[in-house]
Amino acid sequence: MDTSTTSPSPKGLKGFIARRGIACTIIIALFILLVAANAVYALWEASYNPSFCSLCHIIRPYVDSYHTSQYLDNIHQQANVGCKDCHVTSPIGALKEVAAYVTGNYDNPLTERKMTNDMCLKCHRSYESLAERTAHLNRNPHNSHWPNLRCTVCHKSHRPEENYCAQCHQD
Questions:
Q1: Taking the domains of the chain in order of start, what are their residue ranges?
Q2: pTM greater than 0.85
Q3: Whole-number pLDDT of residue 98
């Protein structure tokens, strides 16, 4: 004789949810994941617009400079080079930047990023081509006796450039 007792399955909506609970939970979780993924994608796409970057007040002066200054950032803006073309970051890196902003854990003014020459040479082709373009100058800064100078030693995107050569040379 079977002594196990089985409780009858609930009927109606409760029964449906009880029988389909795992499936419903998975469908709801997938829906939430899909909505979250779309939101992250929309934010990522929006971040290609400099105006989006200026939502953080610490970045606003740099975006204003990008639109109106006499510095390299404005020259890049005129050439349709966006912020993310130089300021490359991963989605995780972007989340870290947002977290730093929200928590107030950032330098003010922001510390200068150390861009590599490879970043600049993605668009500016080669040092040799730059040397050709500046060959008319008395002292060609792109044909220097100092090898391996970073482009950013002289070229500053959001502030005046520095004449590094003038530290030693008068002409």
A1: 15-46, 49-111, 113-171
A2: no
A3: 84
